[in-house]
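#struct-pred

JT: dropping the chains for the assembly here, can someone run the whole complex?
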Amino acid sequence: MVLDAKIACRNVWKLYGKDPEGLLAAHGGNPPDDAILEDGYIPAVRHATLDVFPGEILVIMGLSGSGKSTLVRCLSRLIEPTAGEVLFDGQDLLKIPAKELIEIRRHKMGMVFQHFALLPHRTVLQNVAFPLEVQGIDRATREKRALEVIELVGLKGRDGYYPRELSGGQQQRVGIARSLAVEPDVWFLDEPFSALDPLIRREMQDEFLRLQTMLQKTIAFITHDFDEAIRLADRIAIMNEGRIVQIGTPEELVTRPADDYVANFTRDVAREKLLTVASIMEAPADGETLSDAAVRQTDKVADVARLIIDSELPLRVTDGDGRVIGAVGRAHVLDMLFATAGEARG
Amino acid sequence: MAEVAIPAGELAVRRWVAGSGQSGLRVALFLLAPFFLVLLVGPWLPDWLRIVPKDWSAPFVGWINVVVEVLRTEEVFGLFTFRDITRAIANLIDYPLDFVEAVLVAGFSDSVPGLPWIAVTGLAIVLGWYLQGRQLGIVAGFCFAYMAIFGKWELSMVTLSVVLVAAPVAGAIGVALGIVAFKKAWFEKLLWPVLNVMQALPHFSYMIPVAIFIGIGHKAGTIATIIFAFPVMSRLTILGLKGVSPEVREAGIMAGCTKRQMLWKVELPAARPTLMVGVNQIIMLCLAMVVLASFVGAKGLGHDLLNRLRSLWIGQALEIGVVIVFMAIILDRLSQAWAEKEPEHAREGPFHVRHPFATAGIAVVVISYVLAAFIPALQLWPKSLSVTTAPMWDAMIDAIVVYAFDYLELIKDTLLVHVLIPMRDLYLLLPWSALLVFAVTLGWYYGGWPVAGIQALFALYLAFAGFWERTLITAYMVSFAVIVCVTFGSIVGIWAAGGPRRSKVVELILDTFQTFPSFIYLIPAIMLFNVNDFAAIMAIVIYATIPTTRLTIFGLRTVPHDIVEAAIASGCTPRQVLWKVRMPLAFPAIMLGINQTIMYALFMVVIAAFIGTTDLGQEIFRSKAENDAGKSLVVGLCVAFMGLMADQLINAWARERKKVLGLE
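RK: done, full complex below.
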């Protein structure tokens, strides 16, 4: 598995304080909480290990101060971790020389920022072409490429505008275009839509998914919005006080939250839209009479709820090959809808 | 109070001083008690605790003069002295200076004349139009045409050429030092206090060392101007670079910028707004200094103004003053317009469509030269046609003297006899030990031990520098002026903050007044009150009221709107809203205004020495006449340290206060 990951981190620590390396060394690389806090250290990231697989959207989710921004900056080495390994294609980023790191950033990484971070004195075109410019690519080539990306993000015809002449949503499209200009393998997005209005945010999320369907990048996406995480993520990593408390698919988090902290986020999620029939069905009891109708195990509960509730008898649940693998009835749907997170069936 | 742990005993004292409630009076009483105690027992103190005896004071002057002498005469490697090096460097400035002067007015030879006045005026119009719009173009054109028609063209262009050379050089030095300080923390730690002292040193303190190492003359004036002006640019460069948003910097890193690309393509462009503030300030400082640099022989408007003032030809002095004011206004407006100018969209087409203003500029120059070849009056406005306003001013002054002399004299004499002289005598009683106690107590309470330590050093320097009496006289003049400034400034400020239109008008007036070189303010003071302490104080008051007024308006108008609404909703009368809500919240800002007023007053008090005072400024003046570099620096530092003491205390207090009010 380790070799498969596009980018991964192993036991990454980021401590702020007088002598963080010393503290880690004194406690065998894994200091307990009270030792960290007692000496006035601030633990931004503790013992973080995760993998991002090729073509996957991994959402790192947490409240402000949970360390998610620090973690993603450790992955790109914008912040130097105190300890641990950051593996990019199996190579430890923390060990390579500065020159090589610049090369990796120039060709293999792209990043989108919360407040867009556009250069105010440059036009849209010049902003998008900027990463190509610093590589020393000639003007005609880089502007041609920049125009392609600008069209890709739906800003065709705006290439001569300055950032101040664009709306927030449009500015972030420029930020996205800039990060894609070098055709990176790995794409970091640091709360890219947090500064936008709710309606625009939704539109940008759709746009993001559209782009990802085309581009198939490896993505680490930061957000503090659990709904956004669920909409976009293949997998979600939840952080609290610098620790990764759980990594899993949205469905796993909802059905099997690791602790109360995670459960708190998942409590208000519209389960019926997220969960599949498979997660609420049961093996049919011996001799139980089932309805003739069937639903597939991959159906979302919301899509088939009407069918299940209208039926007097439980329905069959079939797998991809049409075999019956379980049964689902009214009681299951109701349990799921009204169960509290802690009691959800697992 | 810093974040470091405070010993329990000290904390207890602090708590005890602060008392239970929010009583400012109690704190003030406790903090001033030690000071008054020393003051009261003053007469019984041993003499050396009141005034440091002459033979005890540190021979700073002698030390510095030894250093200067070595630099001046000792030869390095037996080849050249330090002064030879400085003079060689200074000679380099001659090339751009001669060139710009030749272009603007002097001409390169008889066959290649400088730009005709009509060309310079036309270019000013094009520039103003390009930077902001037609209106600024018209203002610019008017100002330059005035200089020509009123017969001050050559003087103005000489002054302008110094500004045009000194400002870019000072700017480049400032930015370069700022960049190094931004990149290397140790250099910033070194540079920052130097900048603080340099910005607090009075203009004249720069002149004597410059005169010694470079000589007297136009060139020396330019160098003094450069040295005087660059610190502000360093400071703003550091601030601007530090203010670049971390995200923008990260975006640069993620794009794969090298360090050099980062600086030139990301950080400096992103810091542009702050840097442009620096450009405006540096231009205005250069103008202010070049006018004063006439004291070391800079030519131009300042030189003539100085001569007229010395001969008390007030009418002619006023006439030159008006030209300097126009020069200040137009340089300020143009550089501000440049700072605010947003990048424009490129246009397509032939040259004159893509660059309409450059085309217009070239056209103006060509047409002007052609016209001037036929009509000499367009090359240089003839003396016979020059308008002079001096007789009008003289008549006006005569009228004032005839009708108002008695009243002015009465005001002056009453104040001198009943307020100023008693106040001076009172100040002269102050023992230096009392100042030390005062500074240390306040420094400790508001800034902790480090601040108290620095305050003590400043106070000890003042005591042991050997100019204690002069220091006290300076302090008396400055504090009287500051009291008047603050009273007057805060009243005007409160009135102006009453409505958006009022504050707009007052701010416009303040902006305009602030651009004038400080030297200008001597003219009305001399005009009305002749040459004495009182005139000097009047000059200080006119000049130094500006910051208090400005920051009072700013403080009152930026009180959060919802807090004012909450007060109105609680049933406050307008008077209660002002005194119970807006004033307390605006107070830190007002204090910073007072801080600036003190700095301005200290600067002006030195310049005012020109009209005959007996304070430190006079010593600086004398040292200039005696070419005594050591004395001029030591006395200059006295003035600077007085300013820095006040500055540090007020800033520490304002920080504390803002923290209490949650304004930061």
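JT: nice. The mean pLDDT of chain A is 87. The radius of gyration of chain A is 23 Å.
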